[in-house]
Amino acid sequence: MITRRARPRYRVAVEAPYAGGWRAWNVVAAAFEQRLAAQASPAVHEPRLESETRRGSDVVRVHIAMTVRAADPGQAAVIAWDVFKVAVGDEAQMWDLDGASAEIRPEGGAPAAGWPRPSGREPRRIPRLRGPVGDPRPP
After folding, report:
1. Closest residue by Cα to residue 15 from 79, 130, 102
2. How many domains does the chain have?
3. Which of 2, 10, 21, 80 ranks highest by number of CB atoms within 10 Å?
4. Beta partners for residue 102, in sequence order
């Protein structure tokens, strides 16, 4: 009998600016949430709109979150990005997709920065420079 390990689960948060402004966002927010929730599957658990933050009069920063079952954090990022793009739908021109960001963590675990290094070694410490820039002498 062949047994397979269950794929790990990752918490993924995606943030992206919506450039239409607060009023335009309020018009499309319900449809965006419905398209987002409709993508729940065994691989994507509870995709939801977590927060909306107004940035000036023309930009709303939208934060979505979901749990993704994937082989590794890279695959989790790709799956989450696909979920986000489907939820965006035909309104891609209103989103600043270049300004989007994502955070991926193991479910119930530490952030990716706290994961052990593949080599098992701690990262090398970089000495702080002292004195004016370009001055090789210590102060």
Report:
1. 102
2. 1
3. 80
4. 14
What is the residue-averaged pLDDT of the chain? 79
Q: Tell me, what's the pLDDT at 92?
A: 86
Predicted local confidence at residue 3, as pLDDT:
58
Look up residue 29 and give its two tokens: 């927010």
* Residue 41 is assigned to a structural domain of this protein: yes
Show Cβ contacts of residue 96 under 8 Å, excluding neighbours closer than 6 positions: 16, 17, 18, 19, 59
Q: What's residue 138's pLDDT?
A: 53
Find the domain containing 23 and state its range: 9-112
Residue 98 is assigned to a structural domain of this protein: yes
Which residues are CB-contacts of 79 (< 8 A; sequence separation ≥ 6)? Answer: 12, 43, 44, 68, 70
Q: Which pair of tokens denotes residue 49?
A: 């709109």
Which CATH number belongs to the domain containing residue 51 in this structure?
Answer: 3.30.70
Residues 6+ apart with CB under 8 A from 87: 32, 35, 36, 39, 47, 64
* 3, part of any domain: no
- Could you give the 3-state DSSP secondary structure of residue 62? strand
